[in-house]
Amino acid sequence: MAQAQTLYEKIWNAHVVDQRDDGTAIIFIDRHLVHEVTSPQAFEGLRMAGRKVRRPDLTLAVPDHNVPTTPRIDAQGNRIPIADPESRAQLDALERNAPAFGVPYIDATDPRQGIVHVIGPEQGFTLPGCTMVCGDSHTAAHGALGALAFGIGTSEVEHVLATQTLQLKRSKSMEIRVEGDLPPSVSPKDLILHIIGQIGAAGGTGHVIEYRGEVFDQMSIEGRLTVANMSIEAGARAGLIAPDDATFAYLKGRPMAPKGADWDAAVAYWRTLKTDDGAVFDKSVVIKAADVAPSVTWGTSPEDVVPITGNVPDPQSFADASKRAAAEKSLAYMGLTAGMPLNEVAVEHIFIGSCTNSRIEDLRAAAAILKGRHNAPGIKSALVVPGSGLVKRQAEAEGLDRIFIDAGFEWREPGCSACLGMNPDKVPSGERCASTSNRNFVGRQGPGARTHLVSPAMAAAAAVTGRLSDVRTLI
Ligand SMILES: CC(C)[C@H](C(=O)O)[C@@H](O)C(=O)O
Ligand code: SF4
Questions:
Q1: Reported pTM
Q2: Whether residue 279 sits in one domain with residue 301
Q3: Over the stretch 415-425, which tens digit does the pLDDT of each residue have?
Q4: CB of 151 shorter than 6 A to ligand 1
Q5: Residue 261 forms part of a structural domain
Q6: Quaternary state and partners of this protein (predicted)?
């Protein structure tokens, strides 16, 4: 009998083009997503070497990081110029390079435009069992559909464009098994924040994580994307969730998904993509779902997580000296004092968006809290930035835009927005933001900005109360 294999091993083995004795392998890449930040030098490299893009049909480009989220077309139908010269240069380069190299391109005014990790699944470009790369660390998100997806650097982007392969060393495998059901009002974002809090920001280093357990069987594809997206914040190379009927139902009929007999053949193959009984992981972690509460970060690493009912930790409580020093620095940056209850921390800004939490379910969850309520007087800005034009359109069809606008939110165009300070959406220095994004690093939302990572419902709760708040008190 064939040896029992993990899902990761199955996908890896199906893509090895050449195996070297030193452990490295050449892997075929099925899907390559391209955005404007990590591609200009890669295309330039091809140009200098006189090379073409090997498989434009397996490549898809979209601008997202630098695009402003204010209107892009004026009343006369003309494109509104990008003010920042660096942003403009990157966006212009992608707009030139994609057609020059024959790469399919969704431009900033296309209704399908959005964050690269939102549009991949949405277009059916992301498929179970495929290897997928992008010059972007949150490529892990696509593992939610059972794709082996990971971020690469610009020189690797050039390599994949030129050859459709990548030289890699096999990662170790890690199982995160979540046992039991999540309590009411606890979201996939709370779960992944809790997991990172438990295993640490380096807990997954060198590993590909597979998330297992009934919680994931019951979780929507949007929720799975939120979880897999943050695998990189646990240090992992990638995150995987085995594809199932929910995955197939999500993908069926999407523009780039297989059709007809190809679809049936694909589904038959995808059904084999699960970890065999008896397969061995290099590392296993068990998480009890009942322990997960609505969560919030207090520091400058995604591992700095506590339940919203908790307090800012005392740096002295960390056994490790370097952790103690890091916590002291974090508290100084965040303007917090040890022992302070998290739900007394006032916020001035709310950001609902990013590739972690900008899909339709995220907007529904936030709108459910905001309906009939208004932002607290202390809220200076509240942005809701749909992950794609199609999410935006769907939300508008459901009337969610009205709920957000009536509550005092700005309803924006799709893009990375305030997830990182690469476009005009920034949090002012020294001010505090409840954010549905994935990174609370120093300066992430702008120099001096203080970020608290939360779920969409928790961001909405913070908006209406003006402080970090337990969403369960508003239901
Ligand atoms: C700009 C890009 C390369 C970067 C990444 O790799 O993730 C960004 O998307 C981020 O989230 O920090
Ligand atoms: S939304 Fe944020 S995390 Fe996602 S790709 Fe954009 S900048 Fe990176």
A1: 0.98
A2: no
A3: 999 999 899 99
A4: yes
A5: no
A6: Heterodimer of LeuC and LeuD.
Q: What is the DSSP string of 273-318?
A: -SPPTT---SEEEEEEGGG--SEEE-SSSTT-EEETTSBPPPGGG-
Tens digits of per-residue pLDDT, 377-400? 999 999 999 999 999 999 999 999
Q: Tell me how many degrees the CA angle 93-140-266 measures, rounded to the nearest 5.
A: 100
Q: How many angstroms from the chain centroid is the CA of residue 232?
A: 9
Report whether 134 belongs to an annotated binding site. no
Last residue of a domain, one of 109, 140, 169: 169
Closest ligand 1 atom, residue 151 Cα: 6
In 14-57, alpha helices (H): 40-49
Q: Where do the DSSP E strands lie in 118-246?
A: 131-134, 148-151, 165-169, 172-179, 207-212, 238-240
| Cβ of residue 444 lying under 6 Å from some atom of ligand 2 | no
Write the single-letter amino acid at 203.
G
- Complex-level ipTM: 0.99
**Residue 351 domain boundaries:** 295-474
Atom of ligand 1 nearest to the CA of 416: 9
Task: Choose one of 35, 65, 444 to mutate for the ligand 1 pocket test, by most ligand atoms within 8 angstroms of C-beta.
Answer: 65
